[in-house]
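Sat 14:20. Reprocessing the chain from the morning session after the first attempt stalled halfway. Input below, unchanged.
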Amino acid sequence: MNADKLREYLKVLKPEARALLMAELERGVLRGEGMPGTNLILEELRNTLAAPQKGAPPQKGAPAAKAAKPDRVGNASRLFFQPVEPFLVDDSPEYTHQGRISRACLTAIWDWICRDLAAAEASAYTDEVSRHLLAEKESDADAAARAFQDRVIHLIQAALAAARADEKTRRRLAVQIGTPRALDDVHRLATILRLREPLAAVAGRLPSHIKNLSDDQLTAIKALLDATTSQRDLFTFAAVMVMNRLQAAWQLIRFAVKAANTDDPARIADTTYAFTVNIVLEELERLVRQLASDLKRGQAMARPTLIKDIHDFARGLRSEMDLSGDTPWARRLASVRADVASLLKSEVESVPGRVRRLLRMRPSRDVVPGTTLDQTDVEDTETLIAFLGACRNFASELAINEMTLRAWSETQHYLETNIQGLIEALRTASNSDRTYRQSVVEAAVRFCGKVFGNDYAALLSKAADLAANGERKAAAKG
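Finished this time. Tokens:
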């Protein structure tokens, strides 16, 4: 939908409906669930809500501007949480990430602030931000956000102090916040807000993107991080910002290795940078949970880069540090590799069977005239073969070498020994089963493209065309 059509559609909606739609979209952005085109829709919604409505005079006792006013929760909360953005992680809230907050917690924390911690002040802040943004006074909106952040910092510190002094108060506060790690989450939020200016100063001195962490960059950035070590929280959050700028996030462990001047885990663990290894392991474990979620939803095969990312993390940890001994970090990495192998086992081992089921030679009497293979099934199997190929490339680091080698070899062997028979069956097919034989050969060609390469698949495709067309010509001459 282009901008003009979107504008016309939004004008048809009642002001209340537009306000509700905008609030829901902004909440989605806050949760990290924005869809394509969200920014365009929000921009048009703001324009239509700010513009006067033609032919709609205000009713007595109910000003039109009041009725059209949206609940700008998205903008108010987004400005409030802006300093927290570099430290958000897309993971379930029950998992711990040093120096990071689960994005999924923000809605619950914002609701707690607006409902229990500072209800009147939050309402006034939201209204003030709305006025400034509608008047396009962004600097005033930012100033309002900073003032409210300072107030929330003070209130959170007071609430946490009361919780530490009384167990009943602690339990009540945890229930009010409503996240699995409630007190830790709001403490981390208050800490980030309190450190927002020094963190912004560190961010301003970091490269925007670090494609490959060279020795010179490592030395320069480590000097910047060293200057923050006297403040543990600032040090931790600064390290997280560095990881966010790294194209290969696992390279964060190089700071720990450099600090220890050795790859010995025991000596690395004694440095102030030891926590960076845990941050990298936490991120690796998050990627494995994402893989599990993708597999459950059937999306992993469409995103083989996730397998590569997991492989790169595991290889980076094993290459930068000596994890051959029985250390906590070595055991943790071994557990991750075992989890990956367990997750991928059923998918990897299913490939040869799926290929055999689709390409098996069915007697003509079992073929219903005019039928073909289910194209969705063919596409899913083709994607699964490509996924197996990706797993095969990274098998050694993921502890899946044996199973992937076996599945790949079985698939190769089946295709090599059966493709000529499938083409011959197409050559001799009758009118009743020709369509089905054609679909089987086309599927086999696609599978061979994934296993043997496109050049081999192109040759098979030509052979299949000759088989099908040659038989038709022979039948026509007869």
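Residues 426 and 437 are 5 Å apart (CA to CA).
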